[in-house]
Design brief:
The complex is a heterodimer of chains A (483) and B (458).
Chain A lengths: L2 H17 L2 H10 L5 H18 L11 H25 L7 H12 L15 H16 L1 H8 L6 H9 L13 H26 L3 H12 L17 H14 L3 H10 L3 H5 L1 H23 L6 H16 L16 H11 L12 H19 L8 E2 L2 E2 L2 H27 L4 H12 L18 H15 L3 H4 L4 H4 L2
Antiparallel strand pairs in A: 1-2
Helix pairs in contact in A: 1-3, 1-4, 2-6, 3-4, 4-5, 4-8, 5-6, 5-20, 6-10, 7-9, 9-10, 9-11, 9-12, 11-15, 14-15, 14-16, 15-16, 17-18, 18-19, 19-20
Chain B lengths: L1 E5 L3 H11 L5 E6 L2 H10 L3 E4 L5 H6 L7 E4 L4 H15 L3 E5 L3 H5 L13 E3 L1 H14 L3 E7 L4 E7 L14 H4 L5 E8 L2 E3 L12 E7 L3 H8 L8 E5 L3 H10 L4 E6 L2 H10 L4 E4 L5 H6 L7 E4 L4 H13 L4 E5 L3 H8 L5 E3 L1 H13 L4 E7 L4 E7 L23 E8 L2 E4 L11 E6 L5 H8 L7
Helix pairs in contact in B: 1-14, 6-9, 6-14
Classes of the chains: A mainly alpha (483), B alpha/beta (458).
Amino acid sequence: MNRLVVQRILGLLLMMFSVTMVPPIVVDLIYKENSWVPFIESFGLTLFIGLLLWYPVRDSRKDLRLRDGFLVVALFWVGLGMAGALPLYLTDVPVMSFTDAVFESVSGLTTTGATVLSGLDTLPKAILYYRQQMQWLGGMGIIVLAVAVLPMLGVGGMQLLRAETPGPVKDSKLTPRITETAKALWYVYFAFTLACLVGYKLAGMDFFDALCHAYSTVAIGGFSTHDLSIGYFNSATIDLVAIVFMFIAGINFSLHFFAWRNVSIKHYLKDPEAKAYGFMLLMVSAVVIITLAYLKTYSNPADSFINGLFQAVSIATTTGFTTANYAAWPGAIPVLLIFASFVGGCAGSTAGGIKVIRFLLIAKQGLREIIRLVHPNAEIPVKLGQDAVPFRVVDAVWGFFSVYIVVFGFMLLAMMATGLDQVTAFSAVAATLNNLGPGLGEVAAGFMTIGDPAKWIAILGMLLGRLEIFTLLVLITPTFWRH
Amino acid sequence: MKILILGAGQVGSSAAYHLSREEANEVTVVDRSAEVLRELQDRLDIRTVVGHAAYPDVLDRAGANDADIIVALTDTDETNMVACQVAYTLFKTPTKIARIRSAEYMNARKLFTQEAIPVDVRISPEQLVCEYIEQLILYPGALQVLDFANGRVRLVGARADRGGLLVDQEIATLKEHIPNTEGRIAAIYRDGKAMQPDGDTVIREGDEIFFVAARQDVRVFMSEMRKLDDPVRRVVIAGGGNIGVRLALALEQTNQVKIIERNTERARAISEKLNKAIVLVGDAADEELLLEENIDNVDVFCALTNAEEANILSAMLAKRLGAHKVMALINRPSYSDLVEAGSIDIAISPQQVTIGSLLAHVRRGDVVKVHSLRRGAAEAIEAVAHGSEDESKVVGRKLEDIDVPRGTNIIAVVRGDKVIIAHHDTVIQTDDHVILFMTDRRKIDKLEKLFQVGVSFI
């Protein structure tokens, strides 16, 4: 363990994060709502804490080890949740308790999108903008951004990136240099945000809403500037724009990068995970739409189609935008959607959940066992496309899956122990651990009504989900701290 | 510079290490073993691709399309040659460097043309290491002997010793000692740290000194640093591998060479190849054998087997039994550090010897030769000054006016056949070969810019 280096990088990251408090000030100056004070205070405070951490150890130039990477990422995400909560805690409108402020901030940064705020439409624009911006930064990952803009991280950048990127295989680099890889990812991310912004603007949103929703769409976040979420706009065109960009953002960004560099979409069609992802969304949407139409939930089939499609894509990719109160939909739909969020998006995307590739591998393993029953002597590799998947990866997937389920179980028990009913507790854990956002029952619209202990459990769940559990879990094992 | 390294063996890994730590390079390494690559990627900021190094689709995935240099370093000559051919034919890679081990290919110079096998630069680590050891044997007392300008100038590293005339004196007195010989001290390392040599610097015993001199003056200069050892006569080589046999062949006419090989069949094969050298079958760490062969009268004992641990141990044993000077082939830098301080006189690192010839091609500007020194921390460079006085930042200037980075000295200039040892008022002309010594390699891009013909200067 190399405490000094960890401290130096944490300081640097916090100083970098403090800069993100500046744009809301600009927003406030434009709209003249006089709510810039908490931002300038938080900016100063975060910068100061970062400086305090960094300055005494600014010269420690050792390379970051693998273990340090975990520690930096975990500590940074916790620190980030706190620092991000500062403006919300300090502001007068809305008045937020410390727990609420941290909840909102962590929910933003982990791109969960669950909120404890109501009456969003009346809040100052700076606060609204700030929430959306947090989602945007959390989507591709602030650490990825840091690796892109802070070249001094060197090889250490790779350790950080590995601890933060989602997915079972973390060694694939788009370019030889880690900073270039991080930059490429952010360029692609930035381009999609811009395209989404233009899409929303053309579909009829005003510029502020278009920018804010573009942020939370490509980040697969789910925060909105309106209580009714995307449903506020009541426009099928806007729904469609959102669907398209949620779908895109749920695909591995490496694929986007290759498509962009080679100007072809052949990579998408060749990638087994992207194909499975598309197939899964198609199936879930079809089931939802057909059920809605069959049970005549909406009088107009077109409404069934657009609402069904929107909710299916939004929940299955773990975005959490809504155009309808899906929790009140009939039959198994609400639970089906929550289940779909467990699968989530592709590895290397901004989506949450367990990730499509892991389910794909688990399904293939199941299939292998069946074939083995018939041909006991057969040698059957687990293959993705043309390539056999190394045993290590398959093992890791199983390990991850079981730990996910165990963590889920414990959190469910804890939630219920705080007094929530079973449906609420189940969906609240799913909504946070999968970085989804809205749940069912009491938490269908938001988390404002549940108690403080439940909120802290939810905060933990969101962090665990964003960092794919192991990055946090490894810190509480004795092996990690043993020298 | 986008660099594609094929093969992640010892030479490949160390090339990846040296090249990737320079900011400007983007390195991709191809190897067949995913395990080796994973380990490498943990340590270095590189991209890795698993696959056969010569297959077109593997090269394509590794980015051969826009690679500037392809360096084929797998352990099979044929794979390396084919990889270069594939890269040239399919991807038009501008510079192709291949490791060619077997002398049979190396000697067929006509083979390596653009029409046949398009390898621009052939590297034979075995040959380089062998030449390196030859030089060390030629100049007893030297720790390193490096050639520049086709051997006209030599940079020699040696440890100052009590017998040296200059020891405990200021550098400025050098002129009084040897008035007619030109030479210059390029760098001094005291306790492992670089010192900037000035006229009034006092040389102490134990200092590691690098000096530059014309070939014929090296010996005179060496006597300033330490008492001259007697010329080497008896050499024992442990290990009848590629390097061992090459060295034996090179030395057997001038020296008494014995070579120890464990494997009987291999020993017979090399005995047929060699003419005068004596091939002994046995273990190089066998005390009896060494004593029987009069190890206490041996001038140089070279442990050159594939196993570095065995090299270290047999060299230590030979030293204890009375060999005057022992050398060992050691790959791991950490081992070199361990043994060079004490029991072994010279640790030879094949990677460090080889890497220079790669670096010369990666450098921007016209760089003819690069020698990597002190585990890659320092570098000695031979660069050619181009352009007119207006275009170049070095041509037409006195050395004292040239803005070299800190820790860098211009130590010699070669103009045609003439060797000019650098003085503060030496003026550089177009096409001069300028030889520099950098104690801090990290300033390299500043140096590269110095030797590029700047468009901005017009």
